[in-house]
Predict the 3D structure of the following.
Amino acid sequence: MATVLERVTKVIVDRLGVEENEVKLEASFTGDLGADSLDVVELVMELEDEFDMEISDEDAEGMSTVGDAVSYIEKKQA
Amino acid sequence: MSDLTGKTAIITGASRGIGAEIAKRFAQAGANVVVNYSGSQQKAEAVVEAINENGGKAIAVKANVADADAVKAMVDETMTTFGTVDILVNNAGITRDNLMMRMKDDEWDDVINTNLKGVFVCTKAVTRQMMKQRSGRIVNIASIVGVMGNAGQANYVASKAGVIGLTKTTARELASRGITANAVAPGFITTDMTDQLNEDIQKTMMSQIPLGRFGKPEEVAKAALFLASDEASYMTGQTLHLDGGMVM
Ligand SMILES: NC(=O)c1ccc[n+]([C@@H]2O[C@H](COP(=O)([O-])OP(=O)(O)OC[C@H]3O[C@@H](n4cnc5c(N)ncnc54)[C@H](OP(=O)(O)O)[C@@H]3O)[C@@H](O)[C@H]2O)c1
């Protein structure tokens, strides 16, 4: 079973067209990974589908890095 | 002819008037149609029946367009029944006319809620699916008075001018995802909405229409069909005036 980080990484690579090794925990979506604000909205939508969970708009606004997303999902799954 | 075969369209306020005509035209062009209404269940079901009798596919769904939960449920039902949402026509609209000096807060709020917030709520609700599909068509039914102003309709005019601005922003925000948004601004179209107007107002209106007659719902439906089809593929953020020449 893939880890949360692996699954998040796959979604990001598919959506943003970046290389896997660029997807580090501290990488920010808009700064480091070249996402625009609409990409971030889509990314959150795809994470919701991938992990079968709802991410509220307020929670989504608090996610700016890969690490933010991973720890949010891990906490919600626990 | 514009072809919508295999597409699914949600038409708000399709139980009567212009919306009912759009629903029938779209079904004729091959679309699966969601006939939305707020109160007139029987009329909505009659529209669905007429479509089914002609070999089309349609369902009637009740939802107040300004109620986000009800609209979300409508989009979910559309997805379960038809599997996609390709087209949204924001047509539901009401009038509560009064001179500004006499206009009550309620009259203002009701019209802004249904006509403007309703467009925002419905657009937001279908955007997720359209973004995933990387395609979609949004057609907003505004009004020519939103362009020219009209005494006695401060609330309605503000809502329709708002819809034209919202159309442009929707077009800009979603263009990169293959979604277009355009508006139709009808002039005086013969429906329940305009039948309420007294003869004097109708006469004054008529004198401002170069083509010398009121429009018909099917004339609006044809323009909506064009904007919803592939024929309008390079057009976004625009407002088509369908007003017999009132505004040029
Ligand atoms: N007629 C004209 O001359 C004219 C000119 C310019 C623009 N327009 C615009 O064209 C659109 C259609 O007008 P029309 O003349 O066909 O009006 P209409 O005959 O009065 O029909 C209005 C439709 O909107 C629905 N509706 C009203 N409030 C709703 C709500 N909160 N949620 C969902 N549905 C709602 C009604 O459903 P129920 O039957 O269930 O109440 C009905 O199906 C409107 O946006 C109007 O502003 C009309």
Summary: Chain A has a mean pLDDT of 94.
